[in-house]
Every structure is written in C-alpha cells, then in structure tokens.
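Weekly sync notes, structure subgroup
Attendees: PM, AL, DS (notes)

Item 1: joint prediction request from the bench team. They want all two components modeled as one assembly rather than separately. Inputs as received:
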Amino acid sequence: MRLREEADPKTVAALGRIVGKAHVSTRKLDRISYSHDLWPLTLIWMFGDEVHTPPDVIVWPESTEQVSAVLRYAQKHDHPVIPYGAGSGVCGGALPVRGGIIVDLKRMNRVLELDKTANVVRVQPGMMGQDFENWLNDRGYTQGNFPSSIYCSSVGGWAATRAAGQYSSKYGKFEDMVRGLEVVLPSGEVYRTPERAAGLPITGINDLFVGSEGTLGVFTELAVRVHPYPEARRLRGVQFPTMHAGLEAMRKIMQAGLSPMVLRLYDELDTYLVGSGQGDGFFKKLLAGAKKHDGHEEKRVLGKPREHSPSILREASRALRRKAVGGVLNYATLLNKAFDLTLKECLLVLGFEGDPRHIEAEEKLALELSKEEGGVDLGTAPGERWLRKRHSVSYRLSIVYDQGIFADTIEVAITWDKLEALYHAMREAVAPEALIMAHFSHAYPEGCSIYFTFAAAGANPKTNWKQYGLIWRKAMDACDAAGGTISHHHGVGYSKALWMDRELGGATPLLLAAKGALDPKGLHNPSKLGFDMAKVPQWAPLAGGRG
Amino acid sequence: MIPAKAIEKLRRRLGREARVEVEGGGEEVRSVTVRATAAPHLEHALRWAQEARVEAYLDLIEGEVARDMDGLFLDARGLDRVVAIDPTSLVVTVEAGVRVGALEKALGEQGFTLGPVPPSVRERPLLFWLLDRDAGWGSGTTAIGNGAIGLAGLFPSGEAFDARKTPRSATGPSLAKFLLGAEGFFAIPTSVTLGVRRKPESRRLGAYRVPDAGAGLALMREIVSKGLKAAHLNLLDGAASRAFLKKDDCVLIVGFEGSPTVAPVAEEVARDLILARRGADLGSALAEEWIAGEAEAVRAALDERYTAALSWSNAEDFHRRVRRALGADADALRTVFGQAAVDGLQAVAAVAEGARTDKTRAEVLRVAEEAGAPLLHEVRAGHSIPVDRAAEYGEALGWLAEIGERLDPAGIYQGAVW
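Output from the run, pasted for the record:
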C-alpha cells in the first residue's frame, strides 16, 4: 500500500520542538490509523485494502499552550489541521482529506476541577466518555450524556459534533450541557467563551463553536454542567399494537412534561430482533455471530469457538455465511415487505431516574398514557435488559463487515406532526437497496429523532462504496424532501456535507462568514460541514453516489 | 442625509403595502422609517440601504432607537401574524413583530401557553423578547430564544434565510442560537417557531419563610439538583419580601404545574425538603399573591434594575457583598433570585422607586465584577442599557465584528441594540 508523501523533516522537527519529539509521528502505521475514523465507508476501504486520506503527520500535545503553538505553526506554513478526539465519528468528520497535521488530544485527558456546589466540572477534551462518567460517579455525580460510543468517544468530540446520549430526553444533548469552552482559534489565539447557566439568556458564542466539528478551532477545555447521581431508577417495557400507537404514547409522555431518562420505541422489525434476540439486537440476529462467554464476547463459527476450528473450516464457514446472508440481503425489497406484512407489535423502553417518589409518579403517569394508546405493561425486565445491553450493538460493526456485508446508521429528526411521514419516506427510499429498520429515541415535547439501521450485501468489497453512497443519497434526499434534519447527533462531517446548503435554508452565508473571519485560509478540518466542497477529491463516494 | 430621489426609489420598491415615513424634507431627508408588514418589505429596505449606503437600524420599540440619528429605521411590529399553531407538535410559528401578550392570548384561545411570560415583555413585540437579554424574574421558564426550534430572518445584505424546523439537530453550529444570542447584530429575525405548552391541569404552590438568603439559595439548588422541574421558583430577599409581600423574612416561592398525578408529588418532595431545612410554611395564598402581583411588582421595578448571572458557588457571596457595599441603603435594593437551573441562576436587583443613585449602580457593577457574576441586563430610567460587551466578549469582539462585516457588504446595519 502506497501512501502519499509524509510531512517533510523540517516540519516534523519544528512540531517536535513544540510537543516533544516523542509526541510527533510520521510512522506509516500511525498515518494509516489516523487516515480514518469510524465512518463505515472507511471500513469498506479497509476491507478493500485502500487508504485514501492519510495525514502528513500526527502530534499529541499536552497543553493549551502546545495546541496554540502547533496552530500558529500550521497557520504560518499553510498546513491543514485536523483536531482528533477518539476517532469515533461515523460521518468522516476526522478524515484528513487534504492531508495535514492531526492534532490528537488524547494526552489532554484530565478533569481539572469539580465544583460540587456549582454542579460544574472542568474537563479536558481528550478524556474518554466512560472515564469521565466513572470519575464523576466516584464523586457522586453524573454528566448525563450516554452515547452508545461512550467507551470510544471523547468529551471534546461530543461537543464538536453536538452529540447526544441515550438519556437525552432527561438531560438534553451534550450541547445543552456545555456552559463554556476554552478554544484555540486557528490563529493560535486562546479564547474563553462567556459561561452561562442553563436557564439564562445565551450569548451565542458557545453555540458558534459547539457543533463546529473542528472547523473553527480546537477545544482545549470544557465547562460542563453535571448532576448529583440519581437516587433511584425505574425501567419498564411496554408493548404496543402498532408503531403509530407507540409514537402517540411517546409524544403524550413528553408533552405531559415528564422527563424520562430513556424513551425508546423500536419499529416492528427492530422489536422482533431485539425481543427475540433477548436484547442483543440486530447484528447478532443477522449473523448469529457472538456469544457471551466468561464475561467476554467471543466470536463463534458454526457453533464452535473460533480457536478450535481449523482455519480452512473457518474460512469455508465464513464464505458460506457470507453467501447465505449476502444472498438474503440481495432481496432487500422482498425482505422489507415480508417483515412489514408479518410484524406488527412494537416495544417501548421507558425509564426514569431521580427522586424515588417523584419518578414513581412520573412512571405511573407514563404507563397511564401508554395504556390509553393500547400499551401493555411488560414489567421491568425489558427495560433492565436494555440497560445491560445498551452499548453492545455499536461494537459489532467490524464483525459484520468481515462477513462481506456493510451496514450503517442514519439519525434524523423532525417535529411530531411529520415524524411518521419521514419514517416511511426514508424507509421507502432505502428499502430497494438494503434491509432497513429503526427505533425512535431522543424524544422532546416538539418532536423526536429516528435512528435507522440498514444492512446490505455488496458483490465486491472494492465497489461496495458505490452502493453505500447510493443508499445514503436516497436516504438524505428523502429526509430533505420530508423536511427532516439530516442529523440529530452524529454530525455532518464529510458524509452529509452535500446536503448542508439545503439544511441551512439560506443561512449558509453566516457559516461562511464565521469561517472566513476565524479561518480565512480554510485550513481547519477542510471539506467538512460543507466547506470547500469544490475541493472534494474524486474518490469521494458521495460523488459516485450522485450518479 | 438621504437624497429625496433615493427615497422615491425605496417607495417604488416597497409598493403600497409598507408605509414609508420621512423626517425632514426638500432635496434631502434626515431619516426614513419603513413600517413593514411583511418580511419582503424589510428585505427590499435592506437591499436599498446597501445600495444607497444608508445606515439602517432595527426599531424594536417606538422611541427606543435614538431619533437624533440619520438613517433608515426598520419597524417590524407590523409583522404580527400567528402563522400556524401545530397542536400535534406543540409549536407555534409566528412573525417576530407580534406582541407577546397578543400571542399568549391567541395561544390561550386554543388551550396553549408560552409558559410564564415575564411581565416586562408582555406589551413588547416578540422580537424584543427574542433579542433582549431579559429573561424576566419569573421562573420555571428560560430565555425565550433558547426554546426556538426554527428561525427565519434577513441578513443585513437583504438575503433571507429560513432554517429547518427541528426539535434538535447536529448540523454544524446552532446558527439560530448564535443569531439570537448576538441580539440582532448579524440578522433580523422575521419569524420564529417556538415550543408551547398545554395549559396546566393542576398547579400546586407553596411559600416558605427561610432563615436567610443563603439557606434559601441552598434550597433552590437542592430542588433543581433533584431534577424537580418547578414552574415557579423564586427567592425574595428580606428587602424584596418587605416591598412585595409585606413580610420581614426571606421567602421562597415554589410551584409545580402539570398533571395531577405528578405535580402534587413534586410539590410534596420539595416541601419535605424545605421543612427539613428549617423552612416554615407560610401557606399557598402568599405564593398565589406573589404570582398574581408579580406584574405589579415588576412594574414598580421597571425603572432601574440589574440582572446578574450567578453560579451556585457565588450567589450568596454576590448578595452579601452588594448589601454590605450599600450599607444603610441596602434595603433600597430588592433582590429576587430566579431562573434556577442545575448549574446556576440569576439575581434581579431592583432599586426602590426614588432611591436611584449613581452610587448604587457603581456598587452593583463593582460587586458583580468582583464576585464573578456577569451583568446580563440593565434597565435605567425604564430603558435597556447595553451591557459592557468589551468586558463580556473580550477579544472576540474583533472577529465578531468581522463576521458582521462579511454579512453586511456596505457596512450599513447597526443592529438592534449593539
């Protein structure tokens, strides 16, 4: 595999003087590792032995001063800069599409201060999500953001993408938790945004940086509002006769002023897979590929642990499964229709946490509202099972790809009045190309997010990206036409950049003005959020998808 | 001065629907006011101002913008239609010039409400509330702009935008929040989509005497930290209690609204907490009295008041320092704490009628700075005073101005209150 030229020795030496020689790398392995994030398209590349976007050099600063010095150097010598948290983004937001310097913030991974009276914590951006939560839990607090990527995503990344977690209906998205930021601007200047408590009028400056995906600067410190660890938690499952009934219950629950920590309705197919799979979800069902064993997930092939299977058998079984699963997925339209005709019931997972008496009353009302829509209380088991298994699915993607299948998720949002129309429009658009299902979560009084999962089998790993691009184009066009937002919490990155203009509805000049004022050379995370789309390289899958 | 010919051009562009009023006469006029009744009127006026290089000001309230200036004044109060009320999503799309009170009335007729509306903005256009820093000293609500899920408007160039209406998104920065937080400097909102609520089925109120402001603040903090969403949560210090409730002690007002299944339980949890911390129940009638009389109290305080953003760490210190600084005059400053959230709150310090002095102002500003409690809003002689943006934004002022320049090629737009 040939990579394009790495950074020149002069640049490497200069960066070494800033962050220390040991914290600069142009090693081939590092450049390959940082050429991608968790955008599934990059997995397709990997399985096709392709590396399209290597950085020139990677640096690991440990302080705001070092980040500032790196940015000043980059500005002076016109090097693109790509801020890098944990690389868990699924939209290509961290891809160095024009090479440049990866500024990996993982050494800036400390909690600086917890003010227990103020309920405010100051944390560096490179801290991993679960470490952050554990640190707070040890001190009697929680931060409230629980993305399924929590083990492999960073606090800075959450702010950069306006991430959301599974408890967003209670605690909000991460953007609602950020009080203030320290940000190093592309010029190298260090700026602290004015801090505000949640209920007070905003200054707007925080809101310019949160969600900017590294295009306007690098976060070096975050002030985050936190909550005392809840005293009690209650979880339940409710079964609805139809998806519509379940959505009506969700809407009524949110509009009654309740604050469930989780409110998640699975569509018919997802309910079937979650329910019959004892909570393990889609990928397990699809591949029968994992089994709990001594507390660890262990891959099994034809019922036997992998290490006991001779390699030739292993390969043969893998090929057979790929063929079988792939063969089935090739009939996506039929599959989707068959599920539509046979499956009807939907599962709602419902949970509250907080003061014991208060959440008991909240749960009581939620169940009453559910009953009005034909909901049947399934007791605590489905909710508790969901809590135990809630992160498992997200870590199975590479197993799926290993089987010659590709899959991805699409998260959109819209107001309640158009929610079902958006669901059907997107499902209809994707159904001819892939098996598709969804759950509804991140509910608010005004609307809700839809989280689609699709899976398809490509004929050839080298060309899977074309089909992948086509699916995305159809899905995004359908979302746009139905009036939905193209992203609820994954961000835009590179994969959705083509739809940004329409999303912004004429407000693009403001985004361009901010970019022009802060990063006039366009060096920070190029070609993300729709900036510089004219410079998008030819390999871009969505260019292919444009047809 | 604006050439009369240019005014004629403006009139032609606007047609008959928008009123154009000029001040001065002859070949040149001093100022021109466009009374817009639709967003395109503002768009045409801005494009005209760009071409004619005439400075433009958004006039939120008659007389608020100093009329000794030359230029174009944009009066958006005629954009006053309630475009749509969506009972399924509980959102209203409304033009930005509608009076807040009229909007609340229109919503009320269909069983909805914006929630607690600060009495100070009831007679103002929604646009004023969106762009002003005044969250009101009520409680249980938030600054109105925080609840916007859709925003349409015009950049100073005259370019229109209509951002997608969505409960939440992750499509780059929240441009709506950035625009609203910038108080109309970068764009003029012409319509907004806001969340509304159904009128509550049940309301449970309580008023409690608490030992002192520190104890009251600690209780407010505990209530919000437990995740209880109070619709009314105010602490009145001794001076405020004496002035507004005829009580000598600090008084904590707590109220919950919503379903009869949940509101009474939330009230009971809060009540048990307060009583366990040496609070004394003064009965719900006093809380009713506060809420009913709030508007009157606010009117009494409209002349001069200061709103400071506090954290739970510095709130008590701020209050103590202000009182100490004012010495014998301390009771002239009546402080009501509200807008409580898990990470902080605000204090509205209102000066008693007839007690306004430069010394009071100077001391409040000094103490706010010392305590690390930035001033959010100031009203003097009944007018909103721009806060010290240099202190608030620091070096960002430079690049914020540059953003403004890029949206305003001729440099004509002076914003609403900047």
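Discussion: Chain B touches chain A through 89 residues (CB under 8 Å).
Action: AL to compare against the crosslinking data before next sync.
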